[in-house]
Structures are given as structure tokens and as C-alpha cells.
User: Fold this.
Amino acid sequence: MSSTIQSIESILVDIPTIRPHKLSMTTMGVQSMVIVRMKDSDGLEGLGEATTIGGLAYGPESPESVKLTIDTYFKPQLIGQSADQINTLRVMLNRSTRGNNLAKSAIETALLDLQGKRLNRPVSDLLGGAVQQHLPVLWTLASGDTAKDIKEALDLIETRRHCAFKLKIGSRALMDDIRHVAAIKEALGEAASVRVDVNQAWDESTAAKGMAELQAAGVDLVEQPTPMKDHAALVRLSERFHIPILADEAVADAKDMYNLAAAGFSGAVALKIAKAGGPVRALEQAAVAQAAGIGLYGGTLLEGTIGTAASLHAWSTLETLHWGTEMFGPLLMKDDIVVKPLNFHDNGVDLPTGPGLGIEIDEDKLALYRRKD
Ligand code: MUC
Ligand code: MG
Assistant:
């Protein structure tokens, strides 16, 4: 007899960041996550996480709305169902609920963790097996201060924690941003890869000027320069410049990926389990991108360790991550709610081992950081 879902708890957790993290749409001083604890009739527990950036600044779901969606809409449908029928449960939630992919991702992650624990296999095995055990991870420089960013990067290069950097730009005047990026690229030199993320802040003509300048400065990749819904602008810019574009907000799932590729886009895509609605859906998107010759990149919404581990299990099954990953979320936070943090070293991170996600909650830390009503 298969086990059934007995209980689902969703917990809001707030952890301060190590420094202000400045993006074009918000500055983060704290990261808020929803942690899902799903128990089955055998007493096993699956963990899931949903995270976003800056409340409602980044996308239409907030941590609070994710909690409400899970508690009010998903929980009554899921309790009593077979916990191992992950595809059936995904179809059920997709039929009953439009969108809300962050909440769906947290549930799919908890189901995968539970299944892995039941079968005594890591989540990567449930997804076909890991091709790589150590994944490259970049770091985002987003203090907003050029000298501070250079110092931060040089320290990280020295300790071999990271050798690739993403700079968050788009909130200042174009040439101020360009000077900031060019100074950092010059200080770090050829050995470090420097990329930028504009988070949709430019219109197409600003993007054209910006991309020409960034190309000349030796930047490797420009992420989401223009508004997410303007696929035509991304296509035109990708035809016009040889510096590649990374599509992020423009592409949430396999269907978006197909539409953008069919419109003629070339470049790369940031896969995110949260955008797609879970690790399995993110890998469907990866398959479409691969078929269209679009480069892969393991993206984050700055998840904590649970969401980061779930993403790593998915990305580890991909043969090639052309642009590596940015799964550094736990390092941006001052503390963690797990017993054994992920092991970041040699410009990357180890895939956690053990059944399920390979992650265990630290109950004291969870009690400390959970939001008090
Ligand atoms: C984004 O848009 O890519 C990923 C890294 C980071 O610093 O912000 C996120 C979101
Ligand atoms: Mg981005």
C-alpha cells in the first residue's frame, strides 16, 4: 500500500542578508521564504521551499500569497492522496489552480523529497540520475558601490569560492552603470567572467546602446535587458549583437521557451524551479531549450538551502550547463535553518548526498527565524 499525505505545514521564515542586495526593482535586506513540511502516513517528512525577491517587487506571487495558496487551496486537495503519485498530483493542481508556480514548486519539491526518502534514493536519481556532483556557482555583486564590489570579488577569487560574477544594473543612468561594470571588469581581468542582469529595466533603444558598450567592455552575457513580455525586442537584440542574451523573466516554462525560440531568439535561458512550477517542469523547459540550441543556466530566486538543493538535484541531471549556475542563495543569508549547510568550494557547490534532497531542518534555527504572528 502506498503512503498517503497526512499533513502539510507552510512556514514563513525571514533571514537577514549579509549586505543590502540591490536590484533594478528593489533592495533586499532580508530574504523571506515559505518552508513546506509534508508528512505521510508512514511518518516520513518531505521538505519544500518557495522564495521570491522583495515581496511583490519581482513577480506576482509573494511569500504571504504562497502560504495562503498552499494552506487554503492546495492542502485540502492533497491531504489523503497517494504521496507517490507526483505526476497525478501535479495534473490535479494545474487543473484546479492557474499560475501560482512558486507555490506549486514548493509542493513538487516536498513530494520529491518524500519520495526520495521513501525509496532511499537522492532526488537526482528520481530525475534520471546526476551527471555531475559538483556544479559551478557564480556570485552576484550587488552592493551598488564599485569599490566594495571589486573588493568583494577579489576576495572571492582569492579563496576560489567564485570565478564568475553577475552585476545587477538598470536602476541608474545608463552610462553610470556602464562605468561601474567596465571598472569591475577591468579590475578583475580576463580570468573572471563578468555578466550583467538588467532585470527588464531598459527599453529597446537603451538596451541597444547598453549592449554595444557592454560588448566593448568585455562583458560575457546580458541578462533580461528589456521587459519580460517583449519577446520581439529580445529576438531583435539577439540578432544584432554577438554578446549573448540570457532570457530570465521572459521565460517561465517549456511553452514560453518554445515561443521565444520559435520567434528566432538565440542565446541562453535561466532555468528556475520556481518560475516553472517545480524541478520536473524546469527540466521540461531545459529539453525545449536544448532542442532549439539555446544555452542552459541554473537560475535562482535567491532560495535558501532547501530550494537551492532542489534546484541542484535538477541541474545535476543536465549534460551541459553552458553558463553554469547561480545557486548561491544560502551564502547571501546571514544564517541557515538546516543542520548541514551546502558545501561551496572550488568555484562551485557539491550536490548534497543522502535520501531525498539530502537536507535536514535545524529545529532551533527554524524556531528562531520563523515569522511570529
Ligand atoms: C534574477 O533576476 O536573476 C538571481 C541572482 C540574483 O542576485 O538575483 C536573482 C534574480
Ligand atoms: Mg535575472
Remarks:
- The CA atoms of residues 78 and 364 lie 28 Å apart.
- Residues 53, 140, 142, 197, 199, 248, 299-300, 302, 326 surround MUC (ligand 1) (CB under 6 Å).
- Residues 101-119 form the longest helix (19 residues).
- The radius of gyration is 20 Å.
